[in-house]
Design goal:
The protein is α/β, with parallel strands linked by helices and about 140 residues long. It is built from two helices and eight strands; from the N terminus they run E-H-E-E-E-E-H-E-E-E. A hairpin with a 5-residue loop joins strand 3 and strand 4.
Length: about 140
């Protein structure tokens, strides 16, 4: 028996080196509504240490109802081989949507991988990097 009953994750927040650059990237790629934005106050004393000010970051509301946040604290380039985050993946409706996303990323000048079927998992994926070299993945069901 599980110790905790959970319906899934409520939010994910990643750390970034430049909040303005990262916010511009995620605004452009996903266009999600902003739930909270304290990024304009990031240079004010104490804001980066204040959970009430969301550490000077931005929180997006995803269509699934979960939250995705950016927190400006990073000083170093992202490394998926260190303990912590490997990548973040966002759902899309279909493999066809992955193909459309690949074309849109190409048109926007954003480098990306190929749409790849992971048959054993029943999904297809498309990967690209954000401005801090964090791997962002789009995932769609194969059926």
């Amino acid at each position: 028996m599980a110790l905790i009953t959970s319906s899934g994750y409520a939010h994910v927040r990643i750390t970034v080196t430049d909040i303005a650059r990262s916010k511009q990237f995620y605004d452009r790629v996903f266009g999600w509504p902003v739930a909270v934005d304290e990024s304009s106050a990031v240079a004010e004393p104490g804001v980066r240490e204040s959970p009430e000010r969301f550490y000077g970051g931005t929180i997006y509301q995803t269509p699934q109802g979960t939250l995705f946040g950016l927190r400006p604290v990073g000083q170093e380039t992202f490394d998926p081989n260190r303990t912590g985050l490997d990548h973040v993946s966002f759902a899309v409706a279909s493999r066809a949507e992955l193909e459309r996303a690949a074309a849109a990323l190409t048109d926007a000048g954003i480098e990306h991988g190929e749409v790849t079927d992971l048959t054993a998992a029943g999904i297809a994926i498309l990967s690209f990097q954000d401005p801090d070299d964090i791997n962002v993945e789009l995932t769609a069901p194969l059926n």
